[in-house]
Amino acid sequence: MYKLLLRPILFCFDPEKVHYFTFSLVKFISKIPFVTTIIKAIYVVEDKRLEREVFGLKFKNPVGLAAGFDKDAKLFNELSDFGFGFIEIGTLTPKPQDGNPKKRLFRLKSDSAIINRMGFNNGGVEAAILRLKQNKGVLIGGNIGKNKVTPNEEATNDYVICFNALYDYVDYFVVNVSSPNTPGLRELQDREPLTKLLQTLQDLNATKQKQKPILLKIAPDLTDDQLLDIIGIVNDTKIAGVIATNTTISRDGLTSENKVEVGGLSGKPLTKRSTEVIRFLSEKSNKSFPIIGVGGIHSAEDAIEKLNAGASLVQLYTGFIYEGPQLIKDINKKLLV
Q1: Active centre residues (catalytic)
Q2: pTM for the whole thing?
Q3: Feature table: binding site
Q4: pLDDT tens-digit profile of 49-103?
Q5: Structurally, how many domains does the chain consist of?
């Protein structure tokens, strides 16, 4: 129904406006008696065989929602009703920020892709916490970043602020240094600053009564040598794992007119590269840490391919927008075959 009826209508309008409209719509219909029960009956697949235990956490199924969709933790309870095993909120920054000027979100329909240059637009970590206090049992990842105005040499402070603030309200953390839409952010992926950042968070984590898993989200545009550095950094700092991958700055093979837009590309064009990165990390590290696979998952087969390449869990974003919630069900059903 989504692809035949709803998507053609939604895709006639500005994608950012549609995003906020659908949030309001889902929030509204979820308050109607019995609607949530119906949604769950249609989309949720419950089976013990789908459960996964990864970095000490128990996931009811391995299909999650990637960061960027519910940046401000406004819809995580309702989104979980569509069958997600976990929801990653953010990227959150210490202070609220508007992000980059609009228009900043573009569909590439012929490529089944999206380009965004949102720029960590969010209401700040404290505002998100107020909503996270209303969590009804959803497993939550907290994706954290730095404010645009914070210079790189002070970036660690921003991550520490977010870590401390979110600690009681999320199940795991994701350090985002791989978005292409905050100037200079990807420079933090270099070995020295990244090691310092992750070690600082790990040292802080060690002071807590119960440590929370810390993951690193990486770009798909890293070279093999840089990926080997990532493996070394993960092993040195002993963080819990890696999310592979964020959006790409590559435009290879695109046909849509919007391919000229600046920003991070997600969707089908990223399918192959993200899987390559997952396989490289898994093989070269001898599977020494868990990987969450994300990038270009538009079918159950795409998800299975990433799991076979070495991912322990997968996440959806653009595929969820193009294929709808049926994709979550399809993946979980396929895993039971």
Answers
A1: 179
A2: 0.97
A3: 67-71, 91, 116-120, 143, 176, 181, 217, 245-247, 267, 296, 317-318
A4: 999 999 999 999 999 999 999 999 999 999 999 999 999 999 999 999 999 999 9
A5: 1
